[in-house]
Amino acid sequence: MAYTDRELFARLIRCEAGGEGDTGMRAVASVVMNRVNVSGGEYLRTGQGNIRRVIMQPGQFTCTAETVGGRPNPQTIYSNPPEGIHYAIADWSVGGNKLNATGPSLWFLNPYGECPPEFPFNGSGIFHTGINQHCFFRPTPLYSNT
Question: SS3 of 40, please?
Fold first, then answer.
């Protein structure tokens, strides 16, 4: 099924952070838009400023994968229809708003424990802040070479 960019973004917000409250959902939305608007590195090269390309880039968001670890993924953007709040946060974020606490973060992770000092583990991201169950990581100078 083809979703509009708005619905796709709202579905991603619900699936990735639906249980994190408004702040957690805004934080995840801010990371997505940071990737859309980044001035260099992998996300500029692969996403080219296009939100759909950013969201659907393989290996980036667990909610876009139909399988995880060789098993069917029960939590996908396809099985999580958005509600009004998810559309509102998507609209808020696309409108140029951002949660200041996330800063320039390009990644988030729910480690089900303590936040690691870096993510991805190639040294291109370093821990920035924790919001609810998610850890947020800002780019290091190494990111520009990705």
Answer: coil
